[in-house]
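A common beginner's mistake is to predict each chain separately and then try to dock the pieces by hand. The better habit, illustrated here, is to supply every component at once so that their relative placement is modeled jointly.
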Amino acid sequence: MPGSDVLDPTALLRAAGLKVTRGRVAALVALGEHSHSSAEQLHTHIAAGGVPMTLQAVYLSLQVLTEHGVLRRIEPAGSAARYELRVGDNHHHLVCTGCSRVVDVDCMVGEAPCLLPADAHGFSVQETELTFWGVCPDCAAQAATTREEGAA
Amino acid sequence: MPGSDVLDPTALLRAAGLKVTRGRVAALVALGEHSHSSAEQLHTHIAAGGVPMTLQAVYLSLQVLTEHGVLRRIEPAGSAARYELRVGDNHHHLVCTGCSRVVDVDCMVGEAPCLLPADAHGFSVQETELTFWGVCPDCAAQAATTREEGAA
DNA sequence: GGAATTTCTTGAATCGATCAAGTCTCCACG
DNA sequence: CGTGGAGACTTGATCGATTCAAGAAATTCC
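With all components supplied together, the output reads:
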């Protein structure tokens, strides 16, 4: 029964004109289960899933998939690159300054009203990237605990 | 006559409670003349200005100045970190996908109307970062030339 | 099922940035 | 003006993330 999972990795690869290999399928599956993971995290998840694959192969697959538009690569300042399945666009990211966790944030105001520069300095603008920085609940709790201990 | 240049480096350092050293002054002057430069570019500029300083010292100064809020550090995906004097806030950046050149872009819609996430997933949002990606005039011209040559 | 192409493995190398220890500079005090 | 101590700078090594290169294995088309 196809379509049981998020999306059929094989179909995705075929649609992108790419060979269907164990590594790429594993990368897509892992990313479907753990979105916004780094290459190393994916490598770990893939290994845990019982698929033997080197870290370099993960990098290679991610690079190819990104180049073919199957994945999107995000590179928050101060942490390794993270990847996500290119599902519906039009969302942005919220990054934790503590643990670098990334979550999706829907674009509030529908499309791109205020998301074009006033003066583009002659540039032809192709893309707008919106990133929110904050503290995730876990890190906030941890910080509170640390403060209490420090005060005690 | 103070204030002749963009801003007096010495005053900036004193205001931040930092020692006034040759290296820091040189870094500030270089940044004033070449905003959005990387550490290595600044190192080159400083050396060209006749101030002997190692690259590591540049990194160190930039780090300290950033931590003390004198500078802002921006890290566009795919290029080295860049720095700018923290003048009036409320502007964003436009990065060239070809040469990684960075230019300032004023925040159009005044403050932050659409710049808060709809659902923060429990995060306490501290900052919003808006980056535009495009092709600068130079790179566009170069691309056009290359295409012509390819076609000829 | 077999051959050609592409991918994956193994190992090294790169780039940007940081760390560590010793020396020197800046600045306050005498 | 001279000296002492904290902090900054130099030198050299190290690190993390990522990429490159060459040979071995897998995938696809026929």
